[in-house]
Design brief:
Blueprint: H1 10-20, E1 24-26, H2 31-41, E2 50-54, H3 64-69, E3 75-78, H4 81-94, E4 99-102, E5 119-123, H5 132-148, E6 153-157, H6 174-180, E7 188-190, H7 194-198, E8 201-206, H8 211-217, E9 222-225, E10 245-246, H9 248-253, H10 261-266, H11 277-286, H12 303-314, H13 317-337
Helix pairs in contact: 2-12
Length: 338
Amino acid sequence: GREAPPVVSARSVRRLAERTRPDVILVACTGPVVDVLVSEVFAGLRPRPVFVSGLPGISVPATEKAWVFRSGCDLFVVHSEREVAEFRDIAGRLGGGGAVGLARLPFLRADAVAGGGNRIVFATQAKVPRPREERERVLLALAELAGRRPELDVVVKLRALEDERQTHNERHHYQRLWREMGEPGRLAFAAGSMHDQLTRAAGFVTVSSTAALEAIALGVPSLVLSDFGVSAEMINLVFEGSGLLGTLDDLAKGDFRTASAEWCAANYFHPPERNAWAGLLAGLVSDRPGTPARSLLDGPEHAAARRKARLRVEVHPTMLRAGYRAKRRVRRYLKALS
């Protein structure tokens, strides 16, 4: 494949932008970093490029925070008709920002077809559900399904094996938890490509993983577990009305479902001709110099937060973490002395 681009400092990126004078800069970072890059690092570029940002994966419910941090960008890209409507509503109330553009998620290919198979795939997540007992219930329901249906291979698809580094550490890793439970059933554990698992799947289950969208695109019958609540905290509000919500009892019985066509049209499966982001971007480039997006974080009351975010683009993450740990130790020490 292609060689990965080099990792450079924020100042180096600024110098690169001054030298190459790009028409567009894609700012694909966390919200606070997007804000500090656009408002400070890239401030004053001439000619001013069009700044584009967005949110990966599922962004329902739309949040004011996501909009505010990216309000300095001229184009904000999201991935469903519903997300476009919700963020436009926030923009109408708060002001700031630029256009909201629609782009289909790249892994939801319209021509995708599953190969068929005998696998039931459970997509794990690091953050939900958190409690050990809830994770145990999921594993036991999967094991019950495997016991009832010996012709099926039930696979727990992990983000990483228990001894591998992850973005979000899990206190109760499913593979380790299963071993501590005494392995009371027939389950397999696998890392690697989700797509490879789904092409051999007869069913898919998750609490709220975005992989549910890939399963829908491949026509794999699916189940989104509602036992632990349907809420923003569980990241599964988007699946209300999809027809996919069900329980651990449904899982144990192998009761998988097909998503409603109406829900699909509003959520990530719109026709390709509805993708408007490229046309919006072309218009913004051709109209330069137009009126740039107005950040809602311009003002003295946000200066301290921006200084903190600036550290994240200037200091290596390892050094930054070490600094935060030292700061916490000093605070604990001073508290113990008081």
